[in-house]
Amino acid sequence: MIRRGAFLAGAAAVLSGCNRYQTSLGGEAAESANFLRLFWTFMAVCTLMYVLLVGGMLIALWRSRKAREALVVENGRHHASAPILRPLLIGWAALILVGLSALAIASFVTDRSNAANASHPKLVVTVTANQWWWDVQYSLQGTTTALRTANELHLPVGVPAEVILESNDVIHSLWIPNLAGKQDLIPGRVNDLQLWPKKTGLYRGQCAEFCGLQHAHMALDVTVESKTDFARWLTAQKRPAFAPQGPVETAGYRYVTSRACASCHTVSGTQAGGTVGPDLTHFASRRSIAAGTRPMDRGNLTAWVADPQGLKPGTNMPKIPMRRDEVRAVVAYLERLK
Amino acid sequence: MSSAQKPKPPAEKIARDGPKLTGAKLEARLAETWRTPPGFIGWLSSVDHKDIGRRYIVTALTFLALAGALAIAMRLQLARPESRLISAQRYNEIFTMHGTTMMFLFAVPVMQGMQLYLTPLMIGTRAISFPRLCAFSYWMYLAGGLLLWVAFVMNIGPDIGWFAYPPLSGPQYGIGKRTDIWAQMVTFTEVAALALAVTLTATILKQRAPGMTLARMPLFVWSTLVVSLMVIFSMPSVALASSLLLSDRLVGTQFYNPAERGDALLWQHLFWFFGHPEVYIIFLPATGFISEIVATFTRRPIFAYPIVVLSLVGTGILAFGLWVHHMFATGLPRVGYSFFTSASMSVSIPTGLQLFCWIATMWDGRPQFRVPMLYVIGFVITFVIGGLSGVIIAAVPLDLQVHDTYFIVAHFHYVLIGGAVFPLLGAITYWFPKMTGRMMSETLGKISFWMIFLGFQLAFFPMHISGLMGMPRRVYTYPAGMGLELPNLLSSIGSLVVATAVLLFVANMLLSMRRGQVAEPNPWQAGTLEWAAASPPPAYNFAHIPVVGSRTPLWDAGERWPVVHGLRVDDRELVLTTIITAGPDTREPSAEPSPWPLISAGAVTVMFVSSMFSPWAVAFGTIPVVIALTAWFWPKSPTPSKEPVIE
Amino acid sequence: MIPKPTFEDDLSGLPTHAFGPRSLTWWGIIGFMVIEGTAFALTIAAYFFVMAQERQWAPGQWQPPGLIAGTLFTIILLLSEIPNTMVKKAAEAYDVAKVRSLMPVMVAIGLLLLIIRGFEFNSLHVMWFDSAYGSIIWALLVLHTTHIGTDWFDTIVLWRLMRTPHGESPRRLVDTDENALYWRFVWLSWIPIYLLIYWVPRMFR
Ligand code: HEA
Ligand code: HEA
Ligand code: CUA
Ligand SMILES: [Cu+2]
User: Fold this and answer.
1) Does the reported pTM lie above 0.90?
2) Is the CB of A175 under 6 A from ligand 3?
3) Strand partners, B371
4) Could you give the angle at the alpha carbon of B605 between the alpha carbons of C25 and B592, nearest 5°?
5) Which of B197, B360, B591, C138 could form a disulfide with C128 if both were Cys (CB 3.0 to 4.6 A apart)?
6) ipTM over 0.85
């Protein structure tokens, strides 16, 4: 009981002091708010039951400290048990039944409410998991082509969105705790996840099903923004990639579009059309590199291009031997891809 | 009898126990008949359930130490964010080895080892029903464990997690031999566990001492019966799952391959149809320990025995209807999920009632705070937290958040360590005098109890918080700045305390084995039959088979100790009794020591291991297996031993 | 402390063997039959699970398995229960001579069945690696074949054993009795498998 109390106090202290961009206790969307309500309901009932049970035990041990009969069974003689125990047993059983029923009902009601959130999605996004990054496609109204990006999700606040979940290789699980619970991405199956964000903010999602070597580095940056900001972002994303400026960027542009990079990556508006790796068209507008492995900055980007295996050992992007100046050029060009 | 053979009874030539043959003379004769041959070969041939049970326990504890050492490695890596102590690949191997070893090579086998050691003693018989099968079982278990650990040391240990979901474990992504080794290890341990389960079931149903009706069985024996039946119905599922996985990997079947119309979820269903019962296979024996310990140390039989029995049976049955609660995030239909939520929550009813019965017993009795009893108290305080977090994650909307996070890691360590390891340590302390003839040190016992208990809370309570704060499980590292540093550091410190305490516990065992105070047959004044045998019990357990008239025969004995007599002493003979009322029914011979179980296990091992490299090995490997098994079952004496007919 | 024993029942008059549930062997056999039965049941569940993924069963590109070998196998297997019952009865009647004369019949039937089983594999019209459908059909058939195989081998060993003086021992007759019981499990478990391999793929096309 003391521990429970300490837990609550401790949890509150720890949580208020630090970043809240990846936590189940945020409640920034319809489903995660439901989660919080239900969670504290469960905690209340469970704490009560815990206190009763452990308290009961401590009292039992305390009261029988004073020696009574030596052996309750001795030489074949059984002493009757305390008469109060029988009604207590019945009462305890009833209490468990009531407690469980209440919790079960609360759980179903929440589940229904979550299901109802799903009914009118205004925005459909397809997320396809790969070892170890996320391919993201926005279906655009009125066109058959989709807008493709990677490792990030932009959502307008207050708009229910449906995320279609698929996988290209093994099982992954998409989890953005501030917005909703997780759903698995299973090869050969199509799942979906309903997100209905209620507060703008920057969040982080992460792969929650063990998917091999770099499962730990498979995150996703989530931006919940106002509808106008979202519209602006969408328009920007629809544009083809910016052209390189200056000789260094141009050298980088040539390298990326004509060498190995192009066989894996797409930079729309150029010859680079590979689909094995993340779309790089507006790469520099993202907040992190390689599925949340490192924050986006020049140092990290240089390290990544020069030796992806050093930054994220085992990643499916190979180390490509490059000269110093080539690396600098490629990084400069990539930074242009806002 | 119609056939020609009908030997004349040389009746009185046959020595039988009874008023004329009792005391030291009888014990000498029995010792000669039941002894395990001396020497190394004799040691390898032993079929004594106490030898095999002890081997099981010691081996399982060794695996606990190994897997525990891996846990410490993980905790060191996770103590700081972005730590580079352990590489991603190695970390993935380590948590796989930790989980696999703990579940398949420690928790289940240690419980079965305790059951194997204790059951015949508790029900008053001289041997287990199929002694050679038990010996075979142990060797299979050992081979499976060695296979896994040798592979790990050779750097080809599995790296797919303890439930090995395909396609990650399938032929496309799980390249190399790592996964094959995992799957074959599962096959070994399943064979071993199933063999013991059948043996224990038959022993309990047919070999109880005369008069020990089902309603007089010690609660630990009840839990053994329920658990053995659970093993029988659940383990085939994982054996099937892993066979299908192996055949996908080795001969190209398509069970789990979505590209050829297979389905990755088939694995999850088959695995968890076993995996969920498995956790109760670990937990229910622990409740059996608790029942025995509570009764002894409150000097009172457990309150409401029928309710405890019904709880055991009820949990055993419900356990088969819960497996989908491990798959809440896979996107199955919501209506189905509601069913599994309700079913999962309903397990709290039997568990809650059982807890009540123990507490009521304490209420009524006079508790003595010896070390085993401390573990019981620690168990209640700890396990119930884990049970309640189980109820929390049984709710779909809650589980979708905390599934595959450290909240789950916290849940299952609370129930596994609080609910199974604490009672186990209590049980080891409790039965140590029976097994070794010496008491464990009470002082050291108390120190290690408090260290384990407090260290455990420090190690695992913060995991609830790190889970809620967004830390997924099975990550080899986590970013700084998410608020995960403090809870992880606390967990790491706590785990070091636990490890020290476990080491202290083991040291206590080793020291006490040498120097502990010598124990009499019944040092705790307990009520059940095993305490009627000497400490440690002789090979034949009981010189005379007792007649049982109550649940606590030693407490109720008074001046009389009724026994049956008339069993042969020149041959291993058992009394079989009827299933419900335990009336004497037949006398059956019990198997002699034999090296063939070991040789058969060796042949099977060769076949299993080589089959990972070529399917043809199954065909060729079968030949030695068949030869060994035939030799095993073929009677050794040139002519059948004559059983005189008494008229 | 334990008081001195008081001697009650004298058990020396009890029999030293019994048939059926009174013997330990029976419980052992039943235990393993339950285990294998569970494995069959789960394989069948897996069959329906795979089937639920398909619109057609057998899936369009595959012919359902040919009926001749499988049906012949089934008929012989069911008929084999006649000599099997005779062996079982003879064992229970302690008729060693009759057991000795009937065992070779069972061995011969087992061999015949194994040969026909070879043709069955040949008439499945799908390979195990073709698709999940092929895999599960093969799995059922292989699983059952191992049971035929092991029981056949058991029967051979038992037959040789019965021909030695050990055969006179009532305990060996109990073994024979249980072996016959196991054969019943083998043919009983075949019936659903036969339907699943040969008929269900015809019904859902
Ligand atoms: C000893 C082992 C053990 C035991 C006993 C339990 C007991 C329970 N477990 Fe646990 N469980 C595991 C071992 C165990 N579990 C393991 C190893 C995993 C993870 C596997 C993996 O993913 O690696 C797991 C995972 C797991 C999950 C899946 C989580 C996920 O992956 O997302 C769920 C979900 O429902 C669950 C539920 C429960 C429930 C409801 C109980 C119940 O039986 C608990 C019942 C007990 C109580 C409730 C306490 C006492 C009762 C009362 C005080 C009465 C009053 C209570 C109320 C009115 C609420 N467990
Ligand atoms: C009965 C089962 C059991 C037990 C007892 C434990 C005990 C411990 N476990 Fe384990 N654990 C699991 C079952 C168990 N665990 C399972 C099933 C998983 C899931 C795996 C998966 O995801 O696949 C898991 C996962 C798991 C994780 C999560 C890993 C991850 O997801 O990345 C962590 C992390 O902290 C952890 C820690 C610990 C610790 C610190 C202990 C401590 O209690 C250990 C205490 C230490 C000792 C007992 C050792 C003492 C001995 C020595 C120090 C060495 C001496 C050596 C010799 C004498 C040779 N465990
Ligand atoms: Cu993707 Cu874990
Ligand atoms: Cu479970």
Assistant:
1) yes
2) no
3) none
4) 40
5) C138
6) yes
